[in-house]
Amino acid sequence: MQTNHTNFLSLLQRPRRNRKAPSIRAMLKENHLLASDFVMPFFLIEGSKKCEEIEKFPNIFRLSIDLILKKAALLHQKGIQAIALFPVIEKMQKSLNGSEALNPNGFYNKAIRLIKAELPDLCIITDLALDPYTTHGHDGILNNKNEVDNDATVSILCQMALIHAEAGADIVAPSDMMDGRVKAIRNALDANGFLNTSIMSYTAKYASSLYGPFRDAVSSTLQFGDKRSYQMDPANTKEAIIEARADDKEGADILMVKPASIYLDIISKIKNETNKPIAAYHVSGEYCMVKAAHKLGYLNEMDVFQEVLLSIKRSGASIIISYATEDILKVL
Ligand code: PBG
């Protein structure tokens, strides 16, 4: 039988040839998710053998240090290189100025020491912000007009950084969005001999509606107002570039964008602005949306997580902080 070649389109480009078989698709894959891309966040509570469910945060728990050590060791064996540690402070220990943040013998700093002693090769990322410690839930010290005072807050963050570094933090991560804090923290660390303590700056942190489950987890729900005078307006791009240039210049080692999946344009733009590595925080609300849709039978969580996390990597992030870390490890 003769084939009538005139029926074929004469095309110079047939991109489908590069998609025709699993073997070719595997060879031509441009981006891969690796265990070492992921950072697992943990919520630390005081005490031992404690595992508290968080009502609106499926499969994520408040854990005491003994249980975090166990879980972190397991994750580390599977290739996870870093954890981000957040404290859950009892109401009684919260105050207007969040002074418990500066207690070098508080359970948070003790936990850093223990993790460093037991898992010396695991990178510990500590949180520099006052919101878990303040009664009002804001990330800083208030002035007499109830505004967050930038410079007073920066000076406390510097003291926190020194306490964390002294306890063994590998990376301190200011999540507060005060101006000039990266430079001030770098100076404080250097002046005290912590030349090798890294700074991962929350560079473009948006005033997002997706932080609810996190605030539940650390019980830092705002008692008044919102965070729009320090976190960024979701409508803005240029502001993110200004923040990125500032943090780069001030000496941040890693620049973070947060949230991640609905700010891919920001990740990609900042990637073009700096040669520093980019981290992306796939935040609590981004995780919970997928979990909820899965529970309702609308979407498949494993498929969605893989696609979303890959999109974050594709947009330019080298590090992804995600509550879906344990889920994604199952398919890597
Ligand atoms: C506060 C902080 C927040 C998150 C990380 N650090 C909440 C906020 O800014 O109100 C949110 C992370 C998440 O939602 O997973 N310093």
Tell me the layout of helices and strands.
Elements: H1 22-28, E1 38-44, E2 51-53, E3 61-63, H2 65-77, E4 82-87, H3 107-118, E5 123-128, H4 150-167, E6 171-174, H5 181-191, E7 198-205, H6 212-217, H7 238-250, E8 254-258, H8 264-273, E9 278-282, H9 284-295, H10 301-314, E10 319-322, H11 325-329
Parallel strand pairs: 1-3, 1-4, 1-10, 4-5, 5-6, 6-7, 7-8, 8-9, 9-10
Antiparallel strand pairs: 2-3
Helix pairs in contact: 4-5, 7-8
Q: How would you describe what is shown here?
A:
There is one protein chain. This protein is of the alpha/beta class and 332 residues long. The chain has a single domain, classed as TIM Barrel (Alpha-Beta Barrel). Helices cover 36% and strands 15% of the residues. It has an eight-stranded parallel beta barrel, surrounded by eight helices. α4 crosses α5 and α7 crosses α8. It starts with 21 loop residues before the first helix and ends with a helix. The relative contact order is 0.13. Bound molecules: ligand PBG. Ligand PBG binds next to α6.
